[in-house]
């Protein structure tokens, strides 16, 4: 089978590359060269100290280096979920000439999120952890408590299809690495400190595909639609019976949808 393109899969919080494990075979069989990195602060990637090291500039620079390493005669597309989607939005704004298209998965355009948080009490309540994560030390201690009980529970209950214990244990192993929790949480701290202030301010000129699990307990479905004045070439595909992690809930349906978006 000839190679039809390259696709970079970018995970979000509190995952790492493993979140995409059910997509690798389907994408490869469709002719894609697949790359799924760990964002800085996660799993096997480096964990620099200091909130500023998790800024938009730092994270997008990492991804752009990866795009440059992948670039050849084949087009590069990026797929981002949750925080990974925010980073992918940022890359599309900064260097659209390096990408064929982007696909975001339950990851709102930051301008839409800012506006929605201002006017929606429901969304502010859903996003309570944004505020909690601004505290020093306490969030890390909470997430570590009782052998990472809170994170284990989230992995078991926040999607419609509970993760297998083997995968949950792999996540916990990643969380236990020195500095891992702080690195993960520092994305939220960096956003609060204004280090992601520029994302969502620039017109996106390349095609954008949005995949959204409607049963998302963290993000309102209204956030699936990016602002029309900033993102004009957009297609939104709603998956009514899936959650914040549609790639877990129904891999077969999600893979069909993703391949349609990438075609």
UniProtKB/TrEMBL annotation:
Gene Ontology MF terms in the entry: hydrolase activity
Domain AB hydrolase-1: 7-251
Entry superkingdom: Eukaryota
Keyword Hydrolase among record annotations: yes
Transmembrane intervals: none
Keywords for this protein: Hydrolase
Keyword Hydrolase attached: yes
PANTHER family cross-referenced by the UniProt entry: EPOXIDE HYDROLASE
Family to which the UniProt record says this protein belongs: Belongs to the AB hydrolase superfamily. Epoxide hydrolase family.
The name this protein goes by in its record: AB hydrolase-1 domain-containing protein
Organism listed in the record: Adiantum capillus-veneris (Maidenhair fern)
């Amino acid at each position: 089978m000839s190679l039809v393109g390259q696709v970079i899969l970018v995970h979000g919080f509190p995952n790492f590359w493993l979140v995409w494990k059910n997509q690798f075979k389907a994408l490869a069989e469709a002719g894609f060269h697949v790359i799924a990195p760990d964002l800085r602060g996660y799993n096997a990637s480096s964990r620099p100290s200091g909130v500023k090291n998790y800024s938009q500039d730092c994270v997008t620079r990492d991804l752009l280096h990866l795009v440059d390493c992948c670039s050849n005669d084949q087009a590069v597309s990026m797929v981002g979920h949750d925080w990974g989607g925010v980073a992918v939005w940022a890359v599309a704004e900064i260097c659209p000439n390096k990408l064929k298209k982007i696909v975001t998965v339950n990851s709102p355009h930051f301008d839409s999120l800012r506006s929605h948080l201002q006017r929606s009490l429901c969304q502010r309540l859903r996003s309570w952890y944004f505020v909690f994560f601004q505290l020093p030390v306490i969030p890390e201690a909470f997430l570590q408590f009782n052998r990472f009980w809170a994170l284990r529970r989230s992995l078991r209950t926040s999607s419609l299809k509970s993760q297998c214990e083997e995968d949950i244990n792999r996540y916990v192993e990643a969380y236990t690495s020195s500095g891992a929790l702080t690195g993960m949480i520092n994305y939220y701290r960096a956003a609060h400190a204004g280090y992601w202030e520029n994302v969502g301010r620039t017109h996106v000129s390349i095609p954008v595909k949005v995949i959204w699990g409607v049963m998302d307990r963290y993000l309102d479905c209204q956030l699936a639609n990016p602002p029309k004045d900033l993102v004009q070439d957009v297609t939104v595909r709603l998956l009514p019976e899936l959650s914040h992690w549609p790639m877990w809930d129904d891999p077969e349906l999600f893979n069909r949808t993703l391949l349609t978006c990438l075609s």
